[in-house]
Amino acid sequence: MAAAGLWRRSRAPAAALSRAVAAGSVRASPAEQLTVRRQAEGVRSIVLNNPRRRNALSLAMLRSLRQDLLHDVKSRELRVIVISGTAGPGRAGPGGRERGPEGPVFCSGHDLKELSSEDDVKHHSQVFELCAEVMTLIQKLPVPVIAKVNGLATAAGCQLVASCDIAVASEKSQFATPGVNIGLFCSTPAVALGRSLPRKVALEMLFTGEPLSAQEALMHGLVSKVVPEDKLEEETMKISHKICESSKSVLALGKATFYRQMAQDLDTAYKMTAQVMADNLTLRDGQEGIEAFIQKRKPVWSHSQDKKK
C-alpha cells in the first residue's frame, strides 16, 4: 500500500494519551445511547456515542456495537458499514465545532473502571471475551466494514481500526497501544495489530506506547487512506458508494474467501480460491456481471445467493 506524502512522527503529549486510554472512569448512564445507528442508500453508519468518556469500549458499549453490527445484516438494503466516533465536548474549534482539550477521540479503548479490583476476574474475562467477539465479528460480516477515524485511537480503539476491512483517517489522527504505561500490556489489541502491521512496527508500538501519526499508519498499512479533516466524510462516502455499486452476494463471497485464505499456506489457498471462483460463476450475479460486460450495459444485481438457472 503506497504512502501519501512525507511521513513524520507527531507525538501527542503523554498526559493526553494517558487520559485517552484511561477513559471511562465514570460509567455511562443506562439512559444514554452509547451507539447511534443510521442507514441510507445502502450505507449503515454506526457512531460510538460516549464522548464524555472518550468513546471507551465499556461492556455496554461493546454490546450496543455488536447489536448495531448484526441488526438486519442479511438485508439486501445493507451494503457497507461505517464506524466512527463522536467528538468529545470542550471549547469550540475551527468552524465552531466542539472538541475537547486534546481534540477529538475516535475510541480510547477499554473502560478502565471495569478493569479495576472492584470487579472479579470473571467480569474482566467477560469484557475481553466480548471485545474479541466483536472484533472477529467484523471480519465475519457479509459486508465491508470501514473505520472512519478522526482523532486518537488507542488500545482497543486501535484494535477496532485494525479489525475493520478498510480504514480512512484524517491527517490529525493518531494510533497507539499505551497499555504498557499503566501496567496492562495490550495483548488483545496485539492480535489485530500483528495482522495489520509489520512485526517490528507493531512491537515498537506495544513496547513503548508511543503513537503512530496518520501518515505513519498509512505507510505501514494500518489505514487505507489519509485525508484532510474536512474531506474525511466525503472520502469515506466515496468508497462506500463505490462498494454499493457491486453485488452484495459477490462481495460477501469475496470477503469471506479473502480472510479464509489468509490463514492457509500458498498451495492450499490457491486450490481453495480456484474452487471459489468456479462457484462464483454459478451465482446469478456472477453470470449477470459477465453478460452485462459482454453486452456493454450496466449489470442488474439480484444481491442474492441464487444459482444461475
How does this model look, in words?
The protein has 309 residues and is an alpha/beta fold. It is built from eleven helices and ten strands. Helix 3 runs parallel beside helix 4 and helix 5 packs antiparallel against helix 6. The N terminus is likely disordered.
> Which term fits the overall shape?
globular
Number of strands: 10
Strand content: 5-15%
Placed side by side, the strands forming the largest sheet appear as 1-2-3-5-7-10
Q: What distance separates the N and C termini?
A: 40 Å
Structural class estimated from helices and strands: alpha/beta
Q: Note the main sheet.
A: 6 strands, mixed
Rg from Cα: 20 Å
Number of helical regions: 11
Give a concise summary.
The protein is of the alpha/beta class and 309 residues long.
